[in-house]
Amino acid sequence: MPQKIVILDFGSQTTQLIGRRVRELNTYCEIVPYNKFPADDPDVIGVILSGSPFSVYDDNSFKIDVAPIAARYPVLGICYGAQLLAWQNGGSVEGAPSREYGRAILNHVDEADPLLTGIRPSETVWMSHGDTITALPADFRIIASTEEVACAAFRAEGRRVWGVQFHPEVFHSTCGTRLLENFVCGICGSKADWSADAYIETTVRELRAELGNDKVVLGLSGGVDSSVAAVLISKAIGDNLTCIFVDHGLLRKDEFRQVLDDYRCLGLNVIGVDASDKFFSELAGVSDPERKRKIIGKGFIDVFDAEARKLKDVKWLAQGTIYPDRIESLSITGTTIKSHHNVGGLPEKMNLRLCEPLKWLFKDEVRRVGRALGMPEHLIGRHPFPGPGLAVRILGDITREKVRILQEADDIFISGLRQWGLYDKVWQAGVILLPVQSVGVMGDERTYESAVALRAVTSTDAMTADWAHLPYEFLAKVSNDIINKVRGVNRVTYDISSKPPATIEWE
Question: Does residue 234 sit in helix, strand or coil?
């Protein structure tokens, strides 16, 4: 295994961004719950403590004794993590007179400190906390300040312990990458040898050792994640992999045929299964989005089970689960944001073990691995598409007519993005069929038909996203085409919500 940084997650919304920034430094890292530190892992070279929605002085806040960890490894506390270090060592943390949120400017920097090498006063940092350190422990000293926050960063004298009350992982902290590089590569001594090629070499070797001569069945979705997983596993075990691509009737227009053609061109052993009747029957009358996901997830498992039983000696089910799927399915507090059909294990009756070769990768890393595997760009650059398909873009119950309307509208939108050269500038795009009808006029006739919402976002990892500022002329053209060409739609809107607070998908 490569060297690794362990990020202890205390529940911050930006914990995953810390992981991405560390990976961008070509250093492997793992995010683990705050109380699950892998004390016996010989590959750990440093530890980062994340932020948290809690206050360190709250009785119900997440706490661990950091002292044993700090005695063995360099430690960097971020926001709550910094406050926990100060508080546990005898300092004081109190609620700030006003919440410190947004951009701040460093006006004092100890440039001789190894954490701040190459960082100068006047750098912008991003604050996001309601508490602040009001007194440092006796052996701690301030190494950076802003006008409003005296202790923007500190170090424990004689120990490899640092803390920052700002968030170096967010884009707005202009010195954030340099600070994390100073910690990860300078202080922790990372060799910076984590790369797509290294990942492929390591993963293929591990897959061969784990799977041996076992037969594996993989559920393809048509997206980049399952496609990369299939090529990666095929590289490891060849013909022992059988791929199943299920048409649940909720794919994009003509997607079933197009994707099957793509997979066969990759040399994959693919079985196409039209199970649309099954899914439409089981989804009939269901409006709750979580129930939709559960039904579709179970449906996939049922189809895989039936197909796997037709094959001989299959022992594994492979999936294209990636890191954000797992993160969003269950937060550290145990609160479900939304379930993902790839997450949650397999029913005992299926009697197959689970293989998820991409489960530690972010989306951009999956794409880098795909390119390193030599996969065609039109597959690698595909926008993410939800496993439940158009079911979570139809608000309310599912019918074949609603799917037809949405497929037609979506095809116009996505084709338009490609024609206008906008597709690769957008992270994800699609159309949502709203559960409302509105009055319209076509010719001399009054209409009362459906409304749709266009959704397009920019992002790097799907953990945060902003709405795409598409040209007005483009939106006008798409709106006009949808209303004129899609029977059943007479109104088009554009979603300008960011994530957070909204999610990329509406359900």
Answer: helix
